[in-house]
Amino acid sequence: MPDTKAPIAMRMAATTVVVAIAVLAIKYYAYVLTGSVALFSDALESIVNVVAGLVALWAVAVSYKPADSDHPFGHTKAEYFSAVVEGVLIVVAALLILKEAWGAYWDPRGFDAPLEGLLLNGFATGINAVWATLLMRLGRTHRSPALSADGRHIRADVVTSVGVIAGLAVATATGWTVLDPILAALVALNILWEGTRVVTSSLSGLMDQAIDAESDAKVRETISLNAEGAIEVHDLKTRLAGRAMFIEFHLVVPGEMTVAKSHLICDRIEDALQELFTGARVLIHVEPEDEAKQTGVPVL
Which domains, and CATH codes, for the chain? Predict the structure, then answer.
């Protein structure tokens, strides 16, 4: 069955590229007007947004491909590669910004048309703030690492842009031009931190990280409430692969229970879990009562 969420995620990823290009153009023009190295650093980070958006678009397209003989579990992990690439690009941008900031610190220069430049940058920052909120919301809804990483990165861009605008306003009012490269360096350090977080979270996904504690508690409760007729559930394991969630466990049933009846219990649990987590992939191994361990999920 085709995933109905695929067109939405694809449209969001494609629109992200368009928004990133528009914001880049506005921020670069603000830099051209002012000559501020801090605004240049802000524009440089927007270049990363454009490239990261293109990578995310590719990753989302690949992730929604159906399973095939070579990839029987699907392609959902492709989004993690996008997030890793984005994190690496953020780090590269941070290093380039630090280089520019270092040169400007030893050779500070005044600003041209500071008011116009700050207003333009503020307008671009507003666009980013709205788009970051939408991306993060849809990233959670679709369990998309690529969209979530894009949203977090753009949100970090918004925070640094606000700091740059405030700092340059102070520098313009006071004439302290040395604030310009200092602000650029702070921007670089902030996005360097954000890039590290993006890469770390993506690597966790590639390593088949288990679901979070809250979701795990819901899984256990759902199994417990829908396993009537069974004796116990043990060896529960979960993992995430992009938006896909995998749940597997052993279901212990009375030795005299027929295959048909145990199958009904499995279907009931599986349906409940898939209703709780859309698209969850559930694998249940049925065992006779002498395999009981007296541990795991109690059956109510």
Answer: 6-206 (1.20.1510.10), 213-291 (3.30.70.1350)
Question: Across-strand partners of 230?
Answer: 228
Confidence of residue 108 (pLDDT cuts 50, 70, 90): low
Angstrom distance (rounded) from CA 128 to CA 292: 55
| CA dist list (Å): 100 to 68, 89, 108, 242, 285 | 48, 17, 11, 36, 59
pLDDT tens profile 265-291: 999 999 999 988 877 889 999 999 887
User: In sequence order, what are the residues at sequence separation of 6 or more whose Cβ sits closer than 8 angstroms to the Cβ of residue 33?
Assistant: 112, 113, 116, 117, 120
Complete DSSP assignment for 269-297: HHHHHHHHSTT-EEEEEEEEGGG--S-SB
Angle at 258 between CA 255 and CA 259, to 5 degrees: 110
pTM (global) more than 0.85:
no
How does pLDDT run across 199-213, given as a tens digit for each residue? 776 666 666 677 888
Residue with tokens 């256990």: 220
Q: Which range in 70-84, 132-146, 204-218, 259-273 is most confidently predicted, on average pLDDT?
A: 259-273
Angle at 98 between CA 95 and CA 102, to 5 degrees: 145
| Residue 221 tokens, joined | 């409760």
Q: Which residues contact 161 (CB under 8 A, 6 or more apart)?
A: 42, 121, 122, 124, 125, 128
